[in-house]
Here is the input.
Amino acid sequence: MSAIKLELTGKPKAKPVDETKLGFGNFFTDHMFMMNYDEGQGWHDARIVPYGPLALDPAAMVLHYGQEVFEGLKAYRTKDGRILLFRPDENFKRLNRSNKRLCIPEIDEGFALEALKELIRVEKDWIPSTPGTSLYIRPFIFATDAHLGVHPAHHYLFIIMLSPVGAYYPEGLDPVKIYVENNYVRAVKGGTGEAKTSGNYASSLKAQDEAEQQHFTQVLWLDGVERKYIEEVGTMNVFFKIAGEVVTPELQGSILPGITRKSSIELLRSWGEKVCERRLSIDELADAAAKGRLEEAFGTGTAAVISPIGQLIWGSDIIDINGGKIGPLSQKLYDALTAIQWGEAADPFGWSFEVK
Ligand SMILES: *Cc1c(COP(=O)(O)O)cnc(C)c1O
Here is the structure.
C-alpha cells in the first residue's frame, strides 16, 4: 500500500448552519476515503475523492448476500480547537475481526488509521463545535463482484465517510423504556452476533419496529437458545448495578464487543467498583428488582455513550429502575467518558488520539 491520492472537490457544499439541528446521519462531508481490493493484487488505490454516489453492478454480491462489515466512531472538537479520536485503534482491530468472520480480506490497521486522520484533516472544518456535537465516522467494506454464486467475493471496496452529528442528549440524559423481547432474537452463538455486519441490523428491525409501535425506545435481547440470558439492549451493550456490584453479560460469541463497554469496565474498575462479566438471566434480574437490589441499568455505545434505562417491561411485569431516573454511577460514567472524549479531563489510559 502506497501513498493516498488526493482529489479535492471543486464544489464544496454549504455546511449546516444550525448545529443544534444536525440530528444523526443526515449530513455528509465533501470527501470520502476509498480503497479497492482485487484478488491477486490486494488492497490498492487508496484515495480521498469527492463524496458522491457509487456505480455498482446490479449483481454486486453485497446487494444479494450481505457480505459487509462496518465500524462507527467519532471525532471530537475540544474547547481549544483540537481534534480528538477515541480509541480508533480498537475500531480497526474490531473491523478486522469482523472481516475474518465475513471472509473479507483484512486491512492494514495502521494504514487505515492514517487514512482516517488524513481524511479528517481534509474535512476538519466539518467538525462541529457546539457542545455535545461531533463528527461521526463510518468505515465500511463490502463485496462488489458482479456474480450471483454464493461464495466469498474476490473484489471489495473499503470506504470511510463522515457525518457531522448533533448532541445525543440536548436536554440532558433521559432514561428510556425498554421492552424485553421474547419472540425475536438478534444473534446466536456461532452466528455473526459478535461481528459488526449489516445482516445483524437487518434482522433486528422487526423487533425494534414492534417495540416502537408500543412506545418503547428499544428492546432488550435475550439469548437465542434458551431465551433466558440477557445479551444486549437495542444496538448497545448493557450493564446493571445489583446490590452494589456492576454486572454485564460476558462476551460468549453472540454479543458485540463494544468499545464503550470495554472502556466502561476499565473506568469502573479504576474507581474500585466491582464489575462482573457473567451470564445474567432475566429471572435473576426480575428477582433482584423485586427485592429492591436492582439499583441502576444502562446501555453503552458510541452514539449515546451511556443510555440510562428507567423501566423494563417483561411480559406483564413492569420493572422500575431507580424511580425512572438516571442513577449516580451511570451519570458519573457518562461524565467521565465524555470528559475524556472532548479533552476536558486527563486521559490516564491513553485513549485519546489527537489529529494534527
Ligand atoms: C456497535 C455496537 C455496539 C456498541 O459498540 P461501541 O464500540 O461501544 O460503539 C453494541 N452492540 C451492537 C450490536 C453494535 O453493533
Q: What stands out?
A: The first helix runs from residue 61 to 65. The CA atoms of residues 218 and 234 lie 5 Å apart. DSSP finds seven helices and 18 strands in the chain.
